[in-house]
UniProtKB/TrEMBL annotation:
Its cofactor is FAD; heme b. Residues 149-407 are annotated as: Reductase. The record marks Y29 as: Involved in heme-bound ligand stabilization and O-O bond activation. This is Flavohemoprotein. It comes from Alkalihalophilus pseudofirmus (strain ATCC BAA-2126 / JCM 17055 / OF4). The gene is hmp. Consists of two distinct domains; an N-terminal heme-containing oxygen-binding domain and a C-terminal reductase domain with binding sites for FAD and NAD(P)H.
Length: 407
């Protein structure tokens, strides 16, 4: 437990963190990699380059300071981050390194404002927060290893099949190299894949949503080829069937609630359709009477993945309604009548698509951050309570509410 004095000091730093948080975390990562370059084998270099990791950490530090007298309120955040840490292989021994470096970054950025009193309070608070993470993650590591078909850390898998799904998305069917069983997973979860391109000094880790239902003898990930994506380019251009990659066991708390019988609305933007597809396939297999509305927004038919599969599922399962939205349909799309809406999803259209189920349905969505901000805003305007809204970020978590409120 933290003393009242420590809590008071930490809360007094909230305005400073609001202004200087990202500067502190940016310097933190610079120091961290200078002192411990081996950690570049864990961190996503692209997120570092684009500042997403720095912003996410700044938001976490700010939230910890804001809620330091009510730490139980950040436990859901701890668990969400814990899933990512376990999936990446973050261990207890990393936390003292992070704590020391974070305090040094505060000193460099804040200068004389970082008094001995403030640093001592933050050191004490960091210890409490770090122990919360370590405890949560210890349980997650044990669960991942001890479950049926589970394993610790990374395990070798073989690319059993590589399937082109669209001009930009390819699926990889991954089976364990040792021929053993693989762990079940919940629809919406992801795996971390580790690769080391020949021209790279470091290994690279990426988390990809599983795009099929559980219970198969493979895991499937469906990867968009990003122009500047080290891992996606390597997977698309270099990896062939028969090659080996390494995976951690499935993780993530963005999961389909199969204990509920409420209608479900699944909304995917671009490659954000992958966890939605896992949920759809799962619903058809294990809850065939549950009403599902599936909405996929894509640029056009050339880049849309799994369109035919979803269309066939909807045709064979009357409880599934399928809607396709193309921002810029091709001539071929127009000729085929392959979409339900041209342009971007708007509030009026979403209300009509959700129909009568909007009043009781659970809504799940995933896609680019601007897409998700708009979806969250629309659902709020439709009167959908937060308890019925679920979404997933690809990469470090950002804030949807902050931007919506700032408009």
């Amino acid at each position: 437990m933290l003393s009242k004095e420590t809590i008071s000091i930490i809360k007094s730093t909230v305005p400073v963190l609001e202004v200087h948080g990202t500067k502190i975390t940016t310097r933190f990562y610079q120091l961290l990699f200078e002192r411990h370059p081996e950690l570049l084998n864990i961190f996503n270099h692209a997120n570092q380059k684009h500042g997403r990791q720095q912003t996410a950490l700044a938001n976490s530090v700010y939230a910890a300071a804001l809620h330091i007298d009510r730490l139980e309120e950040i436990i859901p955040i701890v668990k969400k981050i814990g899933h990512k840490h376990r999936s990446l292989g973050v261990k207890a021994e990393h936390y003292p390194i992070v704590g020391e470096t974070l305090l040094d970054a505060m000193v460099e950025v804040l200068g004389d404002a970082a008094t001995d009193e403030i640093l001592a309070a933050w050191g004490e608070a960091y210890g409490v927060i770090a122990n919360a993470f370590i405890g949560v993650e210890k349980e997650m590591y044990e669960e991942a290893e001890n479950q049926a078909g589970g394993w610790a850390d990374f395990r070798e898998f073989v690319v059993a099949k590589k399937v082109v799904e669209s001009d930009v998305i390819t699926s990889f069917y991954l089976q364990p190299y040792d021929g053993g069983k693989i762990a079940e997973f919940k629809a919406g979860q992801y795996v971390t894949i580790k690769v080391k391109p020949r021209d790279s000094e470091y290994t690279h880790l990426r988390q990809y949503s599983l795009s099929d239902a559980s219970g198969k003898n493979y895991y499937r990930i469906s990867v968009k080829h990003e122009n500047d994506g080290v891992v996606s380019s390597y997977l698309h251009e270099k990896v062939v069937e028969g090659d080996k990659v390494e995976l951690t066991a499935p993780a993530g708390d963005f999961v389909l609630n199969t204990d509920s019988e409420k209608p479900v609305v699944l909304i995917g933007g671009g490659v954000g359709v992958t966890p939605m597809l896992s949920m759809l396939n799962t619903l058809v297999e294990v809850q065939p009477e549950r009403e599902v509305i599936f909405i996929h927004a894509a640029e056009n038919g050339a880049v849309q993945a799994f369109g035919k599969h979803v269309e066939e599922l909807a045709g064979a399962n009357r409880q599934v309604k399928n809607y396709v939205v193309y921002a810029n349909p091709t001539e071929a799309d127009v000729e085929r009548g392959a979409f339900d809406l041209k342009g971007l999803i708007d509030l009026k259209w979403l209300k009509a698509a959700a129909g009568d189920v909007a009043a009781e349905a659970d809504f799940y969505f995933c896609g680019p951050i601007p897409f998700m901000r708009v979806m969250k805003q629309y659902l709020a305007e439709m009167g959908v309570s937060d308890e019925r809204v679920y979404y997933e970020f690809f990469g470090p978590a950002a804030s949807l509410d902050a931007v919506v409120e700032a408009k």
